[in-house]
Design a protein that fits this description.
The chain has about 450 residues and is mainly alpha-helical. It contains 15 helices and 8 strands.
Length: about 450
């Protein structure tokens, strides 16, 4: 691989991976804040209002860091990926502009009202502002997903005389079936992050012995949301997204499962190491016929392996793709197990006194971030060697005049700045958690 191309890929991978640490929590917390506000209205319970304000402050910190780390990615399309921008800008420019003009301003404007306008809005108006923040954050997510989905499954375009792609059908772009499955899968993943973060903070309060009333509320709402979202992550959203890959990118499916030979009754590998040189899986533990059934709903259906495709169409890093996919699936299974046990204890009235389970909820906090990152790595590595699937190869999309040295210089600069931002984020969030939900801010309430 060209050294400049490798640097540009690492550059974008670093900035987008760091950036997505923040939006996944805002998108995951947004519906849970609405739940808190709804419970406050229905039960006339001020403690739920305080809980909603607390999580809105956490939301606000994440939102600011998400904006700061998201803006540089827009510029990278022009600086590091100019050939891609010239080719695809006529299509993806629509969704990226709509994300900024509509969704971002809706989310940011109503977040300000939610944080600082409660007295003027009144209880119902404040509830509506929470709903608007939720809609804005999820609409923003949809436009970004629609952009990526077009790169995975191009629809609604024509080729101009200069070879670039131009949008021919706005509704085809918006109704891209890949976008809707990917969006549903991504948002359930975001809710898992929000739910486990909320349950983890609640468990911390209960183990700490402070703010215990709020700790119980956080654990209760977080566990129920985690159970629902974790199940949805597997079915139907994960199943639907997997079938989209199987029918539209069969070589990607083969690489995700390290299936080197086409075969009927293809197995799913639970544990094993892909050996690309010898075209086999080392030390496999398999479930026979499972991949055939999950993909085609028939136990003995034939699944195409990597041998059915020219090697220049194989994903460029099969090992990393395989492990990313299996980490995502493995952690998703773990989330269901944790949520089921916690929900059972909650139903039996024993969760808040089960310190072992509270410790599990507390220590589970980083794993949804890892799972979401692995999921996005699976999506983006699986598309390779294409930047826009079947239309533009990655090797053709980067800026040829930006050298590897220039890319490394700016990458190191971003790493330094993002380290500072990460430390600042942890400091601000820690301060909010230590002060607790009862802390008052100058917010007009």
């Amino acid at each position: 691989m060209d050294s400049a191309l490798l640097v540009h890929r690492l550059h974008f991978a670093f900035t987008i991976t760091f950036h997505y640490l923040f939006p996944q929590l805002t998108m995951g917390l947004a519906p849970l804040i609405v739940v808190m506000k709804t419970l406050a209205l229905r039960r006339n319970d001020e403690s739920y209002n305080q809980a909603a304000r607390f999580w809105a402050r956490i939301f606000g910190i994440n939102f600011v860091l998400g904006v700061v780390t998201g803006i540089p990615m827009e510029f990278q399309f022009g600086t590091n990926w100019s050939h891609f921008s010239r080719f695809a800008g006529g299509v993806i420019g629509q969704t990226l502009a709509m994300e900024g003009v509509f969704a971002f301003f809706l989310e940011s404007a109503f977040l300000g009202l939610f944080l600082y306008g409660e007295k003027r809005l009144g209880p119902r108006g404040h509830w509506w502002s929470a709903v608007a923040v939720f809609l804005g954050s999820w609409l923003s997510g949809f436009f970004i997903i629609a952009t990526d989905a077009w790169m995975q499954h191009p629809v609604g375009y024509t080729r101009a005389a200069d070879g670039s792609a131009q949008l021919s059908s706005f509704w085809a772009l918006m109704l891209n079936p890949w976008a809707w499955w990917q969006y549903a899968h991504n948002m359930s993943g975001a809710v898992i992050t929000g739910a486990f973060v909320m349950a983890s903070v609640g468990a911390f309060y209960l183990l700490w012995g402070k703010f215990e009333e709020y700790g119980r509320k956080f654990v209760r709402v977080g566990v129920v949301a985690a159970l629902v979202a974790s199940v949805l992550q597997v079915f139907p959203t994960g199943d639907g997204q997997g079938r989209m890959v199987a029918f539209n990118q069969p070589v990607t499916l083969a690489a995700m499962e390290a299936l080197f030979q086409s075969q009927p009754g293809a197995p799913i590998v639970l544990i094993g190491q892909p050996n690309v040189d010898e075209h086999k899986i080392d030390n496999p533990i398999e479930v026979p016929n499972a991949l055939s059934f999950l993909t085609y709903r028939r136990w003995k259906a034939e699944v195409k392996g990597l041998d059915a495709f020219p090697q220049d169409q194989w994903p460029t890093n099969i090992e990393l793709l395989y492990f990313s996919y299996h980490i995502m699936v493995g952690l998703g299974t773990l989330f269901i197990a944790i949520a089921v046990v916690a929900a059972f204890l909650l139903w039996r009235g024993r969760l808040f006194s089960s310190r072992w389970m509270l410790w599990i909820l507390l220590l589970a906090l980083p794993f949804p971030y890892i799972a979401n990152t692995a999921g996005w790595m699976t999506a983006e590595l699986g598309r390779q060697p294409w930047l826009v699937y079947s239309l533009m190869r990655t090797v053709d999309g980067y800026s040829k005049t930006v050298s590897a040295g220039n890319g490394i210089f700016t990458l190191l600069g971003f790493m330094g700045m993002y380290t500072v931002l990460g430390i600042l984020f942890l400091f601000l969030v820690r301060r909010e958690i230590e002060q607790g939900p009862e802390a008052q801010v100058e917010a007009g309430h």
